[in-house]
Amino acid sequence: MRTAFAAAAVALLSATAAACGDAGQLQSAGPTQTADSPAKLWPDLRPASSPAYPYDVATRETVKGLTVPGGDIRKIDPVDIVEAELKAHPADYGSKGAFHGTVDRVKQCRPGGDRALCPLLKPYYRDLTGDGRPDLTLGFRLYPTNQTAVRVYTVEGRRLVQVLADNDAILGVELAGRALIERNPADISGYEYRTTWEWDPGQRAMVFSRDEYLHTGTGPRIHKASPSARPSASPAASPSAS
Questions:
Q1: CA 53 to chain CA mean position, Å
Q2: 182 forms bridges with which residues in the sheet?
Q3: How many structural domains is the chain composed of?
Q4: pTM of this prediction?
Q5: Which of 206, 209, 207 is nearest to 226 (CA)?
Q6: Are 118 and 140 in contact (CB under 8 A)?
Q7: In 22, 25, 122, 230, which residue has its Cα 20 to 30 A from 241's Cα atom?
Q8: pLDDT tens, 165-181?
């Protein structure tokens, strides 16, 4: 019986192979490239003891003059938050500041104003800090430049705390998990620049974590290392956005 069973199995496999022909057969993809280990360059070079540039990877600031009713960030008016920033940073928003045109525009956000002139964008509420409560992602245009202010706020007790402040020329902003992703115009045709900020419980702020050039159009494709070390844009005017 064992002999007959073995013979039947061989016959079945032979028939299956004949029926399938070449369909589904594995084919060679060519020789495998030999893996190269990283080559360490200039082993005798003395290591740097301090950074070349002062990278500002996180910003954190308690908003003065405002309290959050009941600790619920949804109960505070976003216009009040923007006006508090204008008052706290006269160097940026004063008559000689880079964003002086924003002050008059914000007045249009109040009842009776021209909403078409209001620079404030739609606020979004989402838990970015992981404490189970919504945080506020806020954006407003910075006139007379083409830049947009991107801000994230959380609540500690009844204090409103700004945990991200970035100004740049913006193509779009996305929220993914506890990360905020900015899409910016790149200086290379067919590319855009993306920056990712993630919540860091140690610094209690949204920390700059990654940036990259991404190919989006028909321009020539280039290779850009990612992530790269890019300092975060301060709340002052960004040098890349005019």
A1: 21
A2: 173, 195
A3: 1
A4: 0.73
A5: 209
A6: no
A7: 122
A8: 999 999 999 999 999 99
Please give the helix or strand (H or E) that residue 7 lies within, else none. helix 2-20
Let me know if residue 114 belongs to a domain.
Answer: yes
Q: In whole angstroms, give the CA distance from residue 85 to residue 160.
A: 12
- CA–CA separation, 86 and 60 (whole Å): 17
Strand partners for 206: 199
Percent of the chain with pLDDT over 70: 77
Domain that holds residue 143: 61-215
How would residue 22 be classed by pLDDT, with cut points 50, 70 and 90? low
Spatial contact of 109 and 79, defined as CB atoms under 8 Å apart: yes
Do residues 120 and 82 lie in contact, with contact meaning Cβ atoms separated by under 8 Å?
yes
Name the residue with tokens 């020539």: 220
- Mean pLDDT over 112-133 rounds to 96
In a domain, 47, yes or no: no
